[in-house]
Amino acid sequence: xxxxxxxxxxxxxxxxxxxxxxxxxxxxxxxxxxxxxxxxxxxxxxxxxxxxxxxxxxxxxxxxxxxxxxxxxxxxxxxxxxxxxxxxxxxxxxxxxxxxxxxxxxxxxxxxxxxxxxxxxxxxxxxxxxxxxxxxxxxxxxxxxxxxxxxxxxxxxxxxxxxxxxxxxxxxxxxxxxxxxxxxxxxxxxxxxxxxxxxxxxxxxxxxxxxxxxxxxxxxxxxxx
Length: 225
Fold this sequence. Notes:
By secondary structure, the protein is an alpha+beta fold. It has two domains: about 5-95, CATH 2.40.240.10; about 105-195, CATH 2.170.120.20. The chain has five helices and 13 strands. The strands form three sheets. The chain has a six-stranded mixed beta barrel.
């Protein structure tokens, strides 16, 4: 994977909510970088640059170059906190990486072949995506920017699970390491919702008709008593 993102940072001395608020007010994002058996370091990043970077999907699954006062090191984004009201970036956690140590990163899924899938093209189903990203474990050099999921062979009422996903060499899906019960569905093709909602009504109407037909008409002599 090529390093396409470089973040320039400055050491941060001020701590606490007040100091972070003042930084954001003047156009900076407070952050922390940790890992690789080094002391955690508080830093600041230029908000404008960070905003441009996070707008790109690849930023979240890339090895980033962090430059602090002229010293560069490789990191990955582990957490990004936003203001729930206006989605402004509030804080970032960056983890240092070593070439010989595995990392865990969430990687987006790119779905291919929807227009070719017989479940869509011939059987008029709709695609339902249960997952849009997966957590992978690998060495930094093997980290994929995304993982492709080919659904071109799926028929109606069929699904692909985590174990069906083809991952690059050297990459493992973290969930599968927890056991077979974690082999969850990733994507499926189902009947349109309107059709699924109509089926129970039709079955209920049919059951009522059968029940009515099976009821015996009261005998006149029974009514008289």
